[in-house]
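Re: the multi-chain job from yesterday

Posting the exact lines I submitted so nobody has to dig through the queue logs.
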Amino acid sequence: MGNQMNDKLDYIIENLAEKYPAPETELNHNSPFELLVATILSAQTTDVQVNKVTRELFEEFNSPDDFAKLNPNDLADKIKSIGLYRNKSKFIVESSRIILADFDGMVPRSFSDLLKLPGVGRKTASVVLVGAFSTPAFPVDTHVFRVSNRLGLANSDRVEEVEEQLKDLIPEELWADMHHWLIFHGREVCKARSPKCEICQLKNYCNYYQKKGE
DNA sequence: AACTCGGGGCA
DNA sequence: TGCCCAGAGTT
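And the result, structure tokens for all chains:
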């Protein structure tokens, strides 16, 4: 049983070496703050639109100081194309104010402090820790959650548990690569609604695929 | 635990 | 043109 898991993990790790396209969906950023904003904007939002909107925003504004001065309604007008824009505008302005008031104008570098910012949950906090501060973390978004459960790398309906199970299973030096791979695989193959099991190299290791065949 | 926020993309 | 997709906060 543990052996099956090891075989499966080994197989996936070997396939990591096989190149998968660099995620152009990766949130680009020139500063921790820009990554924070981009990640808040990305919630519940499929894709590259976020990079475009973020670039436009940061041509005009740069620092928490700039954003803290904004009227959330004005910011909302600039980010309409990504949806949920009223919430996200409020989150970004309010987070900027908290960063100025409580964190010396610097994006906090700890998980617990990041969670104090509105619009920042465990997924967003983890993305910032990894992307801005090279701090080991394992962001569990819906791709990671779904793919891990289907493949049997994790088994839980709770995000926190999936995160713990993955961290226990995967050697820390592989967290980043595994994370990229899970997201890529979730987007391109192991899709939420119509997974392309026929082309999946891992179907023979997959709980979901086997259950489907029964 | 269920509901809300909102658009873009694709069948 | 309607259905599907993706997190965090609130009730």
